[in-house]
Amino acid sequence: MNTILVTGAGNGIGRATLLHFHGLGWRVVGLDKDAEALAELRAALPASEALLLTCDVGKEGEVTRAFARIGEWLDEDALDCLVNNSGIADPYCGPLANLSLSAWQEWIDASLTAAFLCSRAAVPLLERSRSASIVNISSTRAVMSEPECFAYAAAKGGLDALTHAMAVSLGPAIRVNAIRPGWIETGPWQKAGERSEPDHRPRDREQHPVGRIGTCEDIAEAIAYLHHAGFLTGQHLNIDGGMTRKMIYES
């Protein structure tokens, strides 16, 4: 049985990915700061097939402790796929002149530092697999910007660079790719107290050449594709409904 580890697994893309792979017959490991969200997942998944740990993946000590427990749980088995999904969902930080260093660091640590720490810890476990991969969840904001998203964009741009750096260094044993999600509706994949149903305007859908907003399932399916695509590494895949290819003018 294959095993996947997903950071930021409690809600949104992480939750959808964890459940998608469990539905495919994989064992799943989830890390998240949100203990309430993990408790919901723990109640829904067999303990023999799911390990869900509360962990701030931007902090070295917490990552070290979590991976010690993961190693025990795996015993001699391999970790086959690591998904570095954690991050601060809200990209807006306000005017640059008002952005504190501590706030900047929170965005960087939640995404970029976390990916470094978890990838470093996961390498020995991934090297046991016959077909190991890492998928980093970046963002279309790594390559295009909206106002006042400085720290988020920098974190995701750094994650893009880390992706190709790891690909050339960890191969051929471990392939490393990134997904850049565009507008993804995460409401149906939040924990119970924060769950919501999509309510999109026609103009929201019309911004996308495919005619709809993205879903968390779209990203989970793309992760599965990248894991199985054995001749792909160091790549950055936009999953955005074509939005980054369409020029949009204010009317």
Please characterize this protein's 3D structure.
The chain is α/β, with parallel strands linked by helices. The chain contains seven helices and nine strands; from the N terminus they run βαβαβαβαβαββαβαβ. Helix 3 packs parallel to helix 4 and helix 4 packs parallel to helix 5. It is an enzyme of class 1 (oxidoreductase). GO terms for molecular function: oxidoreductase activity.
Summary, kept brief:
This protein has 251 residues and is α/β, with parallel strands linked by helices. The protein has seven helices and nine strands; from the N terminus they run E-H-E-H-E-H-E-H-E-H-E-E-H-E-H-E.
Keywords:
251 residues; alpha/beta; Rossmann fold; 7-stranded parallel β-sheet; 9 strands; 41% helix; 17% strand; globular
Strand order, sheet with most strands: 3-2-1-4-5-6-9
Number of domains: 1
Instruction: Give the CATH class.
Output: Alpha Beta
Terminal CA distance: 53 Å
| Largest β sheet strand count, sense and barrel closure | 7 strands, parallel
Class inferred from helices and paired strands = alpha/beta
InterPro entries: NAD(P)-bd_dom_sf, Sc_DH/Rdtase_CS, SDR_fam
EC number: 1.1.-.-
Family: Belongs to the short-chain dehydrogenases/reductases (SDR) family.
Protein name: SDR family oxidoreductase
